[in-house]
Amino acid sequence: MKTLLIVFHSVTGGTRAMAEAAARGAEQEEGVRVRLLHAQEAGPEDVLAADGFLFATPEMLATMAGLMKDFFDRCFYPALDRLNGRPYVALICAGSDGTGAARQVARIATGWRLREVAEPLIICVHAQTPEAIQAPKAIGAEDLARCEEAGAALAAGLAMGVF
Description:
By secondary structure, the protein is an alpha/beta fold. The protein has 6 helices and 7 strands; from the N terminus they run E-H-E-H-E-E-H-E-H-E-E-H-H. Strands 1, 2, 3, 4, 5, 6 and 7 form a 7-stranded mixed beta sheet that branches.
């Protein structure tokens, strides 16, 4: 049995919805155990026990959320040189662009020597005013389906031994 670890942080609900959709997709694959953990709950032991990863973060001030960065800060050195080659995918809930957050996740994953198996999935909610930025986010069905497909594809690759 392979383990897919989905680590997320969400401020307004959008990233949580994306991570939950990815988990639903991944859970359809036999032979893969899916663990969905908030970034504050996940630790080095969770990372080391996983065969693949899906990292989901909101874009905050053109970077990943601070609590997601805290997860990486706490886990980076205990897992360094112990994850080489394991697959990952990134999901970004962005207000405008998302590429800065995606770049940050990719740099950390490169340091862990993870293998990116799909381009980052950036869902843009176009929140540009203080009110829109702080408001709860509803991710559309089409975008949630894309997140579900990302989770399913990663889990299928793990189950088949492709990754």
